Amino acid sequence: MQIDCDRLSPHNAFMLTLYRGLRMHLHQFEEIRKNKGNLVSANSFLSTTSDYVAACFFAGDGNVDQDHVSVIFEITVNAKVKHSIPFAKIEYQSIFKDEDEVLFSIGAIFHVDEIAEVRENLWKVELTLTQIEDKHWNILTAHLNSK
Predict the structure, then answer these.
(1) What's the domain of life for this entry (predicted)?
(2) What pTM does this model have?
């Protein structure tokens, strides 16, 4: 999978804002909250969209049972720098043609910037895709390479 920077944004912008909405178990969400200011990784392919409304649809409106919360991840990507993991715009292969889907490869690593409750049981988590030059990324890879 290779980045096609010219196709990532309709205006060829290099700073991308992508979204992922989902309902998640409260235990999983608490793990993310504990990692504010640190790195988190995706253990599978991560589907995102540039369409905030589509992400809200997937997240739900916060009307969930007591063990779940609705979460909207807002992911910032600087498409002009080298990243730790490949990603690509795949709307031409998506089931939902209007979704404007961007897929991140397995193992994508993000910095958890901010976490805020939008309203009861509806949260927004701001993430930034790590860059190869990222200080936290370099510490992590050095640690993993020493094992």
Answers:
(1) Eukaryota
(2) 0.75
